[in-house]
Amino acid sequence: MSIRVGILGATGAVGQRLVQLLDPHPDFEIAALTASEASAGRSYRAAAKWGLDFPIPDSVAEMTVRATDADEIPDDVPLLFSSLPSSVGEAVEPGLAEAGYVVSSNSSNARMDPDVPLVIPEVNADHLDLLEVQRDERGWDGALLKNPNCSTITMVPTLAALDQFGLERVHVSTLQAVSGAGYSGVTSMEILDNAIPHIGGEEEKMEDESRKLLGGFDGAELDLHGMDVSASCNRIATLDGHLENVWADTAQDVTTESAAEAMADYPSADLPSSPAPLIHTFEDPERPQPRLDRMLGDGMAVSAGGFRETPEGVQYNCLSHNTLRGAAGASILNGELLAREGYL
Amino acid sequence: MSIRVGILGATGAVGQRLVQLLDPHPDFEIAALTASEASAGRSYRAAAKWGLDFPIPDSVAEMTVRATDADEIPDDVPLLFSSLPSSVGEAVEPGLAEAGYVVSSNSSNARMDPDVPLVIPEVNADHLDLLEVQRDERGWDGALLKNPNCSTITMVPTLAALDQFGLERVHVSTLQAVSGAGYSGVTSMEILDNAIPHIGGEEEKMEDESRKLLGGFDGAELDLHGMDVSASCNRIATLDGHLENVWADTAQDVTTESAAEAMADYPSADLPSSPAPLIHTFEDPERPQPRLDRMLGDGMAVSAGGFRETPEGVQYNCLSHNTLRGAAGASILNGELLAREGYL
Amino acid sequence: MSIRVGILGATGAVGQRLVQLLDPHPDFEIAALTASEASAGRSYRAAAKWGLDFPIPDSVAEMTVRATDADEIPDDVPLLFSSLPSSVGEAVEPGLAEAGYVVSSNSSNARMDPDVPLVIPEVNADHLDLLEVQRDERGWDGALLKNPNCSTITMVPTLAALDQFGLERVHVSTLQAVSGAGYSGVTSMEILDNAIPHIGGEEEKMEDESRKLLGGFDGAELDLHGMDVSASCNRIATLDGHLENVWADTAQDVTTESAAEAMADYPSADLPSSPAPLIHTFEDPERPQPRLDRMLGDGMAVSAGGFRETPEGVQYNCLSHNTLRGAAGASILNGELLAREGYL
Amino acid sequence: MSIRVGILGATGAVGQRLVQLLDPHPDFEIAALTASEASAGRSYRAAAKWGLDFPIPDSVAEMTVRATDADEIPDDVPLLFSSLPSSVGEAVEPGLAEAGYVVSSNSSNARMDPDVPLVIPEVNADHLDLLEVQRDERGWDGALLKNPNCSTITMVPTLAALDQFGLERVHVSTLQAVSGAGYSGVTSMEILDNAIPHIGGEEEKMEDESRKLLGGFDGAELDLHGMDVSASCNRIATLDGHLENVWADTAQDVTTESAAEAMADYPSADLPSSPAPLIHTFEDPERPQPRLDRMLGDGMAVSAGGFRETPEGVQYNCLSHNTLRGAAGASILNGELLAREGYL
């Protein structure tokens, strides 16, 4: 049985990935597309500068794009996927949730709000119940659920697998693809034969969001995980796929074997878009690589390799597809979780 | 007064950089070029696939390339710069030193030998006296001096500046240029739209060499520095310039200001190829960047930026040109030090 | 009913594409893999440095690689796909054909031999009968069939569509992907921030092969097409997909509309791997583009756009995936044609 | 004796190249910088996102940027270099010329106007006298002089050298660097692992401008050259340097030797920024290449290679640095010509 869904911010890089994943989705049907005022009233084909390596799906090509406005969203579309710029998300998402829509959002606004669950279904599905607190406190009929930043999503499943050893301290360096900044976010002159050692706000997102995702939830309040996280975020000349070097310091001893095994055994979620295995581990220290491994699990898997012991724990590399697993796919997974848990 | 010098391994990527820097050098004159047997007897123009963005210098273009063999080196060339593959370096450098040549080598063999000084003149020029021990022990008339790996050279001047705060632990992630692997080291299919999260042996070189460079020397024996270093080395699609994310944990408190100031004030060496300042610091957190900053100080400076405090110390980014400051220029600086200290 | 096939040169860039396409093929079953002596006896997983963006297929991963030698090929493998270096192809292909194997070869040797058909099934399937002449003249039980060079394949279907207007003169500039040179053919230092305006032998291949493909065959002898072709071949920093700028001078008038229509209507072949449509035409003058359009028709389509009239005819751009449509897929299409026409 | 000059559109990619070349210029002194209203009143350091691989020159860093407006330009700045967007150039350049300023402009507006000279000093310095016609007709005290498009400049000196053989028809394919579109003109997602086979308006510019540059001027009126030119323009992932494949059909026979010789012997101009030789010819068919050869003649030379005879003439490749020789340097050369010829 198909659930009608809308895509807020459908013309951007993540919006197009939402279209890619929702077009063939077994349970969801694209019923509304929104974008900025400039695109409203145009066909999706005309409004989106389609940038994926296959033709724009027929199901959406001639659909008329709507303005991103509560009045424009049909009432019979209960679930909205949001990939809005954060300032727009901040302005419209609460109103939509109040109006009764359930919003599964990739936008960075409100991710750290105490009553907004930040969820990766394979990691902290139990945080979803925070929506009850949210509804109580805000008086909303709908709901607002967030997925983390793409660079956070790449790392956190591997940390979740290691938390049995007592995570205390994490250092992480990222090598992030240009698609993470949207279609026009990084110019060619900035990145050809170059790398940029800073992505505004990204370090803080990784440091904060990972502690929320691995935090405890007692049914009423969410505690951040006690570990320290320090991130250093770099932009490089790859199209898709964030690669990360991680050092995880743990309270208990961890060997390379036990770390790799914990990741390989980390459970998937019983949701249509959750891959099995969730974490693909490599013995070859040169893997994972963005071009070769970002499409594992149809772009929804995380991969890890290069395990080495350190005096304090273990170091390794991890990777995921930033606009599939790290953005559009993350929101859709959360939508699947919302559907299964009866929030629609 | 000009000193006649030879270049061992003159046709490779570092060999060509040695030619670039030595051709206009005020004190050195290129008198001999060696390469593999296959190149011996050919003109340098024919033997080297010149890959720099200016024409091959006239002074060497028609010079006949010699085999890399002690018998082939003229006696009146006291100083040899070596950029040989390490297996070749291991085979021929000791014999050349025994035969009386002073070898300033960029090759990775023997760098950690207890009686082989590993030197960055601005950091540990005092280690040069280890050559006396070397001569005593090995009975050599000549000498063998090493510079560190390009990725080590990028980081160590910044660590030297911070050691006043008591270095205890270093984590470093590198984003290394393809030229570091030589002209044919990285294929285009490996690196376009990609990154490789491992460089064989490189992590260990950074971890070991940095402790030797910052170690103490009492005139007889060299102690490694007590800090722990963990490196994670990545290859990316840049031509030149290694960018590194560093976390330095220190015994004493260090602020971003004191860290940046310590680097900006770190002294240069009074040698022709040592830039002033040695370390260029940026306030813009998006700098240094490989394409924009690798040529600072004519390619001999290190640059640093992105300073942030951490619970244990400070994190920052640093950069240098890997085949100039990190390889050819490093050997030449060591040659200048050898000349000044009377080893020729 | 499945035909057992072998892949000669299975570890290279085209060999891996042959594995990719043959593994799920409805009519062919991979029964033998050959490579150089150095790889013989190893598992395919160990011998091939698998470079595609999905895992190595299970069906071949543990298959033992054989030496490329007639004695090593099992007798019950009637069809061999060859992606050997041309010098190896020249040495072994005739012997295999003599020994009774039917060889569908992508190697560049013998392509212009008068009794070796050079075939693109959608363009000149009738040339296949030249195999009768070949068998008569050479006394072979098997056969040797060639597909053209990847850059030729990209252009020739579009020229075939235009030949109704009387082709007289063709100028073509290519922007070719690095995969066309094999996994190690182009180094990263050669191509990053660069382009190379010459590919040895490629210009001549395009100029000669296109005239043979469009030539007439009377059942006994093959006449080259009378048009002149001048090619200029460039290597650029793309992974896959050859883009070409073509000027076609014709005897009759041709408008942009009639040119585009002739291409859009050009018939596909009734073979499993022939896409429909064969030629995808774009109105957007910025298309086709390598990254966006190389996978049209599962990588087997040609695309064209940018039509403009000239004083002598029409200019346009065309594109195809060089290692799928232009190499591995071309050989497989020829294998399908051989099977249908009863040569196995 | 130094002439005070202004730069209109000083913050863009070409504007920064103008700063680079004018800062050390022997005869010109930067006295005014203009940009859009948004930049007006700010320091050049703050207004320009400096993107060159050396620090911003001290002479301009703290200079206050002015609005691009006749009222804002000081009276004692007789010569203005313009790299304005063409719509802005169209709006302000005539007024400046009328107000008495001599404008040497790289902007694309007005290039084909019958009374606006379009000049490459080494090719058609005699066209400068068209300024007399311009002043007569328009009643201007100043003057407006244009240089051609970067892709035109690369090709035209080589055509000028061949015109002794009677140019009849030219086909040209370009492989153009991203800097030609300005700092934000090409996004990274558009060009990584990709090429774009069309640049809006560029084909027509090459086709028209080259005929004007090589046209005859009788002192009163300018005739376009009679040759036909067909261009196909591609954007590729290079930072700087336009590479072009040219076929020149000539009335008289031309050999590869005579073509190369005509180019190698083509005279330079006796102006400070004109390189000698103007055209650097290569025997190696793999040259010129953008990364290796764009800086020949300090970025002001054209290079050519890959000569092959065709049935109608000769084909070859040529290259120049698009923002130095092709834009900023072209305007400065024209400024030098204006100074020498007494127009200031």
List keywords for this structure.
344 residues, homotetramer, 6-stranded parallel beta sheet, 6-stranded mixed beta sheet, Rossmann fold, alpha/beta, 23% strand, 12 helices, 2 domains, 14 strands, Dihydrodipicolinate Reductase, domain 2
Could you walk me through the main structural features you see in this protein, from its secondary elements to its overall organization?
The structure is a homotetramer of 344-residue chains. Chain A has 344 residues and is α/β, with parallel strands linked by helices. Chain A has two domains: 3-149 and 327-340, Rossmann fold; 150-321, Dihydrodipicolinate Reductase, domain 2. The first copy, chain A, is 30% helix and 23% strand. Chain A has twelve helices and 14 strands. In chain A, the strands form three sheets. In chain A, strands 3-2-1-4-5-6 form a six-stranded parallel sheet, sandwiched between helices. In chain A, strands 10-7-11-14-13-12 form a six-stranded mixed sheet. In chain A, helix 11 links the parallel strand 12 and strand 13 (302-309). In chain A, 61% of the residues are buried. The model of chain A has no long low-confidence stretch (mean pLDDT 97). Chains in contact: A-B, A-C, A-D, B-C, B-D, C-D. The A-B interface holds A 171, 173, 175, 192-198, 203, 228, 230, 232, 234, 236-239, 243, 245, 247, 285-292, 305-306, 308, 310-311, 315, 317 and B 171, 173, 175, 192-198, 203, 228, 230, 232, 234, 236-239, 243, 245, 247, 285-292, 305-306, 308, 310-311, 315, 317.
